[in-house]
From TrEMBL:
Annotated localization: Golgi apparatus, Golgi stack membrane; Secreted
Residues where substrate binds: Q114, N156, N179, Y239, Y274, G278, G298, H307, H322
Top-level EC class: transferase
GO molecular function term, any single one: beta-galactoside (CMP) alpha-2,3-sialyltransferase activity
Record keywords: Disulfide bond, Glycoprotein, Glycosyltransferase, Golgi apparatus, Lipid metabolism, Membrane, Secreted, Signal-anchor, Transferase, Transmembrane, Transmembrane helix
Gene3D superfamilies: Glycosyl transferase family 29
Membrane topology: Single-pass type II membrane protein
Lineage: Eukaryota, Metazoa, Chordata, Craniata, Vertebrata
GO CC annotation terms, alphabetical: extracellular region; Golgi cisterna membrane
UniProt name for this protein: CMP-N-acetylneuraminate-beta-galactosamide-alpha-2,3-sialyltransferase 1
GO biological process assignments: lipid metabolic process; sialylation
Subunit structure: Homodimer; disulfide-linked. Homodimer formation occurs in the endoplasmic reticulum.
Transmembrane keyword on record: yes
Length: 346
């Protein structure tokens, strides 16, 4: 569903108003980052070898310090998750930031996804304009030995229908939903809580001012969309509105094209033209969460890929440019090694 900006009911912010909102948002982000550092300072002082990505694999011998896990969950990701470790790249940046440097090689791969015709310099200009408005780094909770970032990754599969998973989904700290997947009318099966909504502009739906917007950009126009939707509007395509508040500025995150390429080449072994939004979100969750629970993925019992909120009209519908069968096989392997928990639905 597409939504147009209704500019008749609101006054466009002038330059001074926009600059004030940007400064206010950045002050909020800096204050939150300082609070997190102060909270974790004591734990960090007691951690040995802080550069280790998985400190639970390191033995700390100290009379006053007990061995600590990198998170507060019962099970954190570790080298025992063999399949995860064979693909996982902790150095990859999941989200774009003002300091991100995309290689020409990655750009050439990315521009072929939807036949982008503009060049690398145009891309770099679009990213610079993006971070002239939005905060230079994404708003992410960092891992901590005393915290467990539990995530529910909620797909749109028809297998959610009749599942009764609603309250289970809502019990997680982070609930990530895909594209336009609705909750109203489906609360018993899919829950009501949404902390993050994954979108690409053509799949956009209205969001409130407390939901993080995770943008999957497949072309340069998608990178221009958040800024234009906040400032001048989009007149050529009916993209969703972004509420122009200082808080909303902190809640917009754009997935790094290098991360998308990493998922396609390392996790998918180049199967399919490019991974689905749902699969890329699954891998994204492994980078930003400590414990991952997956709902609403996979085909129905007849092998059809349909949505819980739709009546399937076309049988034998498949997954277009995505390799749905291989994506689901990878998910099942992660579940079999207890890296993630998979709920298969009704």
């Amino acid at each position: 569903m597409f939504f147009k900006l209704d500019l008749s009911k609101r006054r466009l912010p002038d330059n001074e108003q926009l600059l004030y909102k940007i400064a206010q948002a950045r002050r909020m982000q800096n204050r939150n980052s300082l609070d997190e550092k102060l909270k974790d300072q004591t734990l960090q002082e007691k951690t040995i070898g802080g550069k280790n990505i998985f400190p639970q694999d390191q033995t700390a011998q100290d009379n006053n310090v007990q061995k600590k896990s990198p998170c507060g969950c019962q099970k954190c990701f570790s080298k025992d998750d063999k399949f995860l470790m064979s693909c996982f790249n902790p150095s990859i940046e999941p989200f774009l930031s003002a300091s991100s440097r995309l290689s020409l090689d990655v750009f050439m791969w990315w521009k072929r996804l939807q036949y982008e015709r503009r060049n690398f310099n145009y891309y770099k200009t679009a990213v610079a304009n993006l971070f002239a408005v939005f905060p230079p780094v994404p708003d992410l909770r960092k891992p901590s030995p005393g915290k467990c970032r539990t995530c529910a990754v909620v797909g749109n599969s028809v297998n959610l229908r009749g599942s009764g998973y609603g309250s289970l989904i809502d019990g997680h700290d982070i609930v990530i939903r895909m594209n336009g997947g609705p909750t109203t009318g489906y609360e018993k099966d899919v829950g009501t809580k949404t902390t993050h909504r994954v979108l690409y502009p053509e799949s956009a739906v209205d969001l409130d001012n407390s939901t993080h917007l995770i943008v999957f950009a497949f072309k340069i126009q998608d990178l221009e969309w958040p800024t234009k939707a906040l400032t001048t509007g989009f007149y050529t395509t009916a993209y969703m509105r972004i509420i122009d508040s200082a808080k909303t500025l902190l809640l917009v995150m754009v997935v790094n094209p290098a991360f998308m390429k990493y998922v396609h080449e390392i996790w998918m072994k180049r199967r399919g033209k490019y991974p689905s939004t749902g699969f890329m979100t699954l891998i994204l969750s492994l980078h930003i969460c400590d414990e991952v629970h997956v709902f609403g993925f996979g085909a129905d019992s007849n092998g059809n890929w349909s949505h819980y909120f739709e009546v399937l009209k076309k049988k034998n519908y498949r997954t277009g440019p995505h390799s749905g069968t291989n994506e689901y096989a990878i998910l099942k392997r992660l579940a079999s090694e207890q890296t993630v928990t998979l709920y298969k639905g009704s």
